[in-house]
Specification:
Length: 278
């Protein structure tokens, strides 16, 4: 069986990003084994980062520990030592043997088992600029520095992305404008051209622009190709997130492929790849 890495259509390659390090929809999130597998295969993989009490980052999505781990309380109030002792939970809440990873643990794994050329691990930073301080930025740079080529740092707060990436010059960056004031203006005006123009102006150094796939398709329905200006600016576009493979989602994915998006984020890369290949 072919590995679920990408789909080639009409001379254009669209990568299937392993959302929260899932290869298939039944996978638990953020396990080291799946992350390493994806990077070994040359996949595009995504994990999330939130700040913990010792001013480093944990590989978790939620600010609260209960849903994803055996812990309780807020990540920002929990020490690195305590976090490393917690176990992850699967999609049904069952406890897994896998433990919570910190960013430095993830970077150490990649240093020990270097990824295949072309593999890319997205660090989706869930915090805002106000949450950062000099210690957090320094810890981030110390962890990322030796393996920066394997990563792309993304987020919805461009100020936070600039602050972190400025400490790691080799680090690629991405920007997701589907939050906050820019999205509110789009919802009020329907002006897709201004929305994407503002995003490109806000993040001139970004390698990737991340957009909700519904927004991409809504722009097309309104007669605006939102992919074209991103490509014209020399950037790539990721459309997120296809949760499950259904007749409806396959129709949406076919439209995204026709628009030549560069990446589709999905919780089921394996199922989506199989369905598209058939």
């Amino acid at each position: 069986m072919a590995h679920p890495l990408h789909i080639d259509r009409e001379g254009h390659r669209t990568w299937l990003k392993w959302h929260r390090a899932r290869r298939k929809v039944t996978d638990p999130v953020f396990t080291g084994a799946r992350i390493l597998e994806g990077m070994r295969l040359g996949a595009s993989v995504e994990v999330d980062l939130v700040i913990h009490a010792d001013r480093g980052c944990a590989v978790l999505h939620n600010f609260e520990l209960e849903k994803e781990t055996t812990g309780t309380g807020l990540v920002r109030e929990t020490s690195a030592q305590v976090l490393r002792g917690l176990h992850l939970r699967d999609n049904n809440g069952a406890v897994l043997p896998d433990r919570v990873m910190l960013l430095e643990d993830l970077c150490a794994l990649l240093a020990e088992q270097p990824p295949q050329a072309g593999a890319l691990l997205q660090l989706d930073f869930k915090e805002e600029l106000a949450a950062l301080d000099e210690r957090t930025i320094a810890n981030f740079a110390d962890s990322i520095g030796p393996v920066a080529d394997a990563f792309i740092l993304s987020g919805g707060d461009i100020g936070a992305i600039r602050a972190l990436s400025s400490a790691v010059p080799a680090l690629k960056t991405g920007y997701d404008p589907c939050y906050g004031d820019s999205l509110a203006r789009l919802q009020a005006t329907g002006d897709f051209a201004r929305f994407i123009g503002d995003a490109l102006t806000a993040a001139p150094q970004a390698d990737m622009i991340y957009l909700a796939f519904e927004l991409v398709l809504s722009a097309q329905d309104a007669g605006f190709d939102i992919v074209a200006p991103i490509h014209a600016a020399g950037k790539r576009i990721d459309a997120w997130t296809i949760r499950r493979v259904t007749p409806s989602s396959l129709e949406q994915v076919e439209r995204l492929l026709a628009l030549k998006v560069d990446q589709i984020t999905t919780d089921d890369p394996e199922g989506l790849h199989a369905a598209l290949a058939s």
